């Protein structure tokens, strides 16, 4: 975040410097540039860089994902204080699955344990273990019973009552059940 702040300031000063050059060239030409030109260019540099970073964040994050981690859902948003997001909504959150580390249940081959990763702009990544039942189809949170003593997948399936239904066209269902990761 500190580097992004420094880059934002650099973009503002860079365009303000360009406006300064324009004002000096206009003096040489015998005309006078408006006084508001330098602050305007500085503001354009700051806002332009921040808007670019907002839209480029998703692509940067996806490019940094390790092998086996795939994006299953994105959330695009438009907000009133970002009027440009009504033209093109911004992806500020997404969910990825770690399909490289899926554990199948030995008692029931239709049940898998998978890690979901929740990404959000300017927040830390959250890992959320999930149990996926491909037969139902449904998913449930996989909770740790005690520190370093998790329930087995089979015990968890027997105890949980908080199953959330999945549709057959849900990207999570397709990623885990149809692709048989």
Summarize this structure as a short list of keywords or feature phrases.
alpha+beta, 24% strand, rod-shaped, 7-stranded antiparallel β-sheet, 7 strands, 4 helices, 181 residues
Q: What is the tally of beta strands?
A: 7
Structural class based on helices, strands and sheet pairing: alpha+beta
For the largest beta-sheet, the strand count, sense and barrel status come to: 7 strands, antiparallel
Task: Calculate the mean pLDDT score and round it.
Answer: 87
Helix content: 25-40%
Write a brief caption for the model:
With 181 residues, the chain is α+β, with helices and mostly antiparallel strands.
Report on this structure:
The protein has 181 residues and is an alpha+beta fold. Helices cover 39% and strands 24% of the residues. It has 4 helices and 7 strands; from the N terminus they run H-H-E-E-E-E-E-E-H-E-H. The protein has helices at 2-28, 37-64, 153-159, 171-178, and strands spanning 69-77, 90-98, 103-104, 111-120, 126-133, 138-141, 164-165. Strands 1, 2, 3, 4, 5, 6 and 7 form a 7-stranded antiparallel sheet that branches. Strand 3 and strand 4 form a beta hairpin. The longest helix has 28 residues, at 37-64. The two termini are 35 Å apart. The mean pLDDT is 87.
Summarize the SSE layout with pairings.
Blueprint: H1 2-28, H2 37-64, E1 69-77, E2 90-98, E3 103-104, E4 111-120, E5 126-133, E6 138-141, H3 153-159, E7 164-165, H4 171-178
Antiparallel strand pairs: 1-2, 2-4, 3-4, 4-5, 5-6, 6-7
